[in-house]
């Protein structure tokens, strides 16, 4: 009985103190303020112990596509989330959707690559990490168009024709065939990684005139590149030899064989060339007379002259019927015998000298019915061939080369090889009769 009464008194005292405390705070008297209560414990009543996991969809994706990321958290409220990927390069892009959802844009890869995405989640009293792996595949590439094919018909690799040097022209001739939906609209030539020529093909035929052969001499690669309108690229590689000394020796070899008179008593080769009655290097244009029968075909004569000018620098003046004759009395004359057909040739050439057997003072070209029947290419190359008998091989007008050049019996490739070009330039830089 006494113990119960004591308990009741204690309760009264505690309640009285609690009430007084409340009154004191609200009254703001002279008592000190009470400090704020500490943060409340988690709702479960225990110390914060969250768990973190990641859901991702899809887990295999092509480059450039998005992956949806969801962070699943239990027993905690995050205050910050940071993302990282490994490997770090190439870098994808993280984009926040809301507090728990993100997207990751897969980077561009060239091969199948596995990335690990890691979320670092910070809570009030702790930090958690969670990771997930994503496989990124290269984006499917559209089918590539088939590259064009290239056929080079000139030059070829024979250790002479493909020898080049300074001040000569290597003309690359060939055909290009598109194997895609586009057509070839550009053909280029590269030497030592430098573009040295470019042209637009005429249907499938192309010619490239190359005069620069790189910064160093020696054996090297000439790359012919054809490009189509749908960006398909084909290549053809040709080995060439850039060697001025070798080219010069080949030119001298040609001159001694076809354009010189050998003087056995001297043991010397002396140049025989088309010239004039004055001494000194030939520096006047070649006068080329045509008859009235040739006049309708003058355009072929002009193109044949342009061929020689391009490759040797020799200039021409065409004399038409009624024009004054050559002021030097030296010239080449073309006339027609279209009513005759010897059968063995469409044209024939003679060359003559006067006082000096080394100086050719006249040339005569006759065109027969066979020339008239030929196509445009034949007419031009046949005329250029006959001019060559006077200009380059006048001492041997009945002799033909056997190196598949313009001066072959049947005009071969229709080209002046680089050593023939240089041979012509050498002989016309010297006097008739000079030794070489």
Quick structural overview:
It contains 6 helices and 24 strands. It is an alpha/beta fold.
Provide key terms for this protein.
436 residues, alpha/beta, Immunoglobulin-like, Collagenase (Catalytic Domain), five-stranded mixed β-sheet, 24 strands, 20% helix
Question: In words, what does this structure look like?
Answer:
The strands form 6 sheets. Strands 19, 20, 21, 22, 23 and 24 form a 6-stranded mixed sheet that branches. This protein has 3 domains: 87 residues, Immunoglobulins (Immunoglobulin-like, Sandwich); 94 residues, Immunoglobulin-like, CATH 2.60.40; 183 residues, Collagenase (Catalytic Domain). With 436 residues, it is an alpha/beta fold. A hairpin with a 5-residue loop joins β23 and β24. α2 packs across α6. It starts with a helix and ends in a 9-residue tail after the last helix. Helices cover 20% and strands 36% of the residues.
